[in-house]
């Protein structure tokens, strides 16, 4: 008989709180700070207030999960007799995956009868959330930990992340575009489209003039890449611009016939880098 196991992840999944609670999903927390004031799991800002302060120009920073944090999440589950499958934030964007691996290695020695697997999802925001959603669904349908692991490794590079931002200055602050490009792009109404590549890095893809065109471009990519892939549910995250996220959902619905969506805010940990006005579309396709 296969051992019972728990799936856990990070707050960078940006999954709705009610989903996390319904699925009893254990979460490792990446902290963030605004103008030097740090916020943790228990004292975080309301999401609208977080983006309001960003729009006012306040400086944001984020912190990764360290090995002690990961151990504090993992060990109680092991003590209860569970094996553990942790789906971690992309190693291309954070040291969190490495911290979780270090904690797991230490705990394997302390709990030799328990199994701990840490997966680098190479994903972020609701892209990571969509991977977690699929893994939890498989588990609820009776899949073993090995079956879920196999599916993850076979499919995670088919998880497509496409997003755009409304204000290039936040990407400049994060080192993604030069100051000159941010100033000129803003003057000309240029909106970049970016994605997360096979190494889990954030990569600019193309530039589009105008907000609506940039939002439609996300769906163009889905039309091109998702042929032959079942997308019974699509995830969309946004940086405090729900109407734009709904516009993308409507485009996906009308062009591709998708009926089910999870739409949620980009949380502070990722929003600190992408900024207000981000819209991201996540689906399964031929390639990233």
How helix-rich are the residues, as a percent range?
40-55%
Strand content: 15-25%
Total number of helices = 11
- SS elements, strand count: 13
Distinctive features:
alpha/beta; 6-stranded mixed β-sheet; 11 helices; 43% helix
Protein described:
The strands form three sheets. Strands 10-9-8-13-11-12 form a six-stranded mixed beta sheet, with helices on both faces. Strands 2-1-6-7 form a four-stranded parallel beta sheet, sandwiched between helices. A three-stranded antiparallel beta sheet has the order 4-3-5, with helices on one face. α3 crosses α4, α5 packs antiparallel against α6 and α9 runs parallel beside α10. The mean pLDDT is 93. The protein is α/β, with parallel strands linked by helices and 288 residues long.
Task: Write a concise synopsis of the structure shown.
Helices cover 43% and strands 23% of the residues. It has helices at 17-22, 47-55, 67-79, 96-110, 125-140, 145-155, 168-173, 179-188, 211-225, 242-256, 268-274; strands at residues 5-10, 27-28, 32-34, 37-39, 60-62, 83-88, 116-120, 159-164, 190-196, 202-209, 233-238, 260-265, 279-284.
């Amino acid at each position: 008989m296969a051992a019972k196991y728990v799936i856990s992840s990070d707050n960078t999944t940006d999954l709705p709180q009610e989903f996390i609670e319904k699925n009893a999903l254990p979460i490792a927390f990446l902290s963030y700070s605004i103008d030097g004031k740090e916020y943790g799991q228990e004292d975080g800002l309301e999401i609208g207030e977080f983006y309001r302060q960003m729009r006012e120009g306040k400086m944001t920073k984020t912190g990764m999960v360290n090995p002690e944090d990961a151990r504090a999440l993992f060990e109680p589950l092991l003590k209860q007799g569970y094996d553990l499958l942790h789906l971690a934030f992309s190693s291309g964007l954070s040291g969190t995956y490495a911290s979780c691996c270090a904690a797991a290695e230490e705990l394997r020695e302390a709990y030799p009868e328990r199994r701990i697997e840490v997966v680098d999802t190479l994903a972020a925001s609701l892209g990571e959330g969509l991977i977690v959603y699929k893994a939890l669904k498989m588990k609820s349908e009776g899949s073993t930990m090995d079956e879920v692991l196999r599916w993850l490794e076979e499919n995670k590079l088919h998880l497509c992340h496409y997003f755009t931002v409304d204000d290039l200055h936040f990407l400049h602050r994060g080192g993604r575009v030069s100051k000159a490009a941010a100033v000129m792009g803003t003057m000309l109404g240029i909106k970049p489209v970016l994605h997360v590549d096979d190494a889990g890095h954030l990569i600019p893809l193309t530039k589009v003039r105008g907000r609506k065109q940039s939002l439609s471009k996300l769906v163009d990519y889905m039309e091109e890449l998702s042929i032959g892939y079942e997308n019974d549910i699509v995830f969309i995250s946004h940086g405090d611009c729900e109407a734009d996220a709904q516009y993308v959902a409507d485009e996906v619905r009308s062009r591709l016939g998708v009926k089910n969506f999870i739409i949620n805010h980009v949380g502070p940990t990722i929003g600190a880098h992408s900024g207000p006005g981000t819209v991201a579309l996540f689906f399964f396709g031929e390639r990233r």
